[in-house]
Amino acid sequence: MKVGDKAPNILGHDENGREIKLSDFAGKKLVLYFYPKDMTPGCTTEACNLRDNYTTLRKQGYEVLGVSVDDAQKHQKFIAKHELPFSLIADTEMTLVQQMDVWGEKSMYGRKYMGTFRTTFIINEEGVIERIITPKEVKVKDHANQIMS
After folding, report:
1. Any bridge partners for residue 15, and if so which?
2. What's the sign of the alpha-carbon dihedral 21, 25, 136, 83?
3. Which of 20, 31, 43, 64 is catalytic?
4. Continuous segment of H or E residues that includes residue 98
5. How far apart are the C-alpha atoms of 33 and 137, rounded to whole Å?
6. Mind listing the domains of the chain with CATH numbers?
7. DSSP string covering 18-29, please?
8. Is the CB of residue 110 less than 8 Å from the CB of residue 117?
9. How far is residue 7's CA from residue 1's CA, in Å, rounded to a whole number?
10. What is the pTM for the complete model shown?
11. Average pLDDT, the chain
12. 48 is catalytic
């Protein structure tokens, strides 16, 4: 996916098993952020930064939706532990991460593995990708300000 592309309508199922569609956010800007794994330091920092700035993001017309390949139960624990005010999509089948092209080979300490690239898509009111914050650009400690700038 690239800037100017229409995002897919079916986004997946949230932590409660409810199907989430892009059309649910019609007329609003959507922050669709992909992250590797619940309860890890970087992902927790990013989620909490978005939580702490959630009211400001909403005042500026943004809705926030997180996506990882963790299951719904793990998402529920992550949301409860960190009091996240937004939903998380449980992309266990890896449908959305592949559609959005944020799944691929990663490397840590010389070990190669498949995983989610930390990427944020800003989708406009018409469902079109307006901006992409790439893995090299995402600042987990200041992500909300990156989105709003």
Report:
1. none
2. negative
3. 43
4. helix 95-99
5. 13
6. 10-148 (3.40.30.10)
7. -EEEGGGGTTSE
8. no
9. 8
10. 0.96
11. 96
12. no
